[in-house]
Please model this.
Amino acid sequence: MNLKAAAVRLDEEKIYNIRRALSEACYWGRAIERNQRKPSDQRWVDNFSNGNATLEDLKRFFPTYQIHRAGWNYEAILDQVNDLHSKENWTTVEGIRELAKSLPKDLEDTKDGKSLKDGDRTSAASKIAMFARPNDDVFIWDRLARVAMGVRAAKRDGASKAVRYDTKGQNKYGSFHSDCLVELKVELQSKEFNGAVDDFMAFTTFARATRNDPSLACRSYFERRLFDKVLVCEGVRIEELREAERPSKS
Model:
């Protein structure tokens, strides 16, 4: 499927992807319950943004968000996670780059014996930062999100090919982050997206009703977290459309 056709389909299916993203966001924003196999986002925002993460938190967080290609030295990483929320003069792009760069010092051997890729480190750093600094403009470096953003950015710029984001290429995290800011601004002009943000926040408040502190993060966090889910849903759809056009194997 060519770029224009993919972009048209995404526009036609926008409301459905927003609804699907809202469902995903609410699932991950559900109430904090004991012994959950995959704890909710609330746990990570509560603990990471206050510097209260424990080793048990990290051992749950990394597999939950599929940051498990390497054997992580959790004891070494814990201080970095707990210190991140209070860093002064922290900026998103440079902050994530520095965190990603520092993570190799705190790694054990990867499971397959190969070096951890820069993209894996950037993914880990962006996911940690999303919850440690929920009020900063963090966007998660996710493969499917990059697929969707590549189509969006190309459509916006009138390009014939989707933009390819890669930590070793021209379009690194800074480019991805910049494009996310532009596209989020576009989404915020949509009543469907804003209504979904309202529902996401209302659900999270409801899920925290029995907790002493009903607050969690500012609205911008919920906007970015929902937008992240929208991009992932769009990325899945793009890959489905591409797969559908491949020749059948005899």
Notes: The first helix runs from residue 3 to 12.
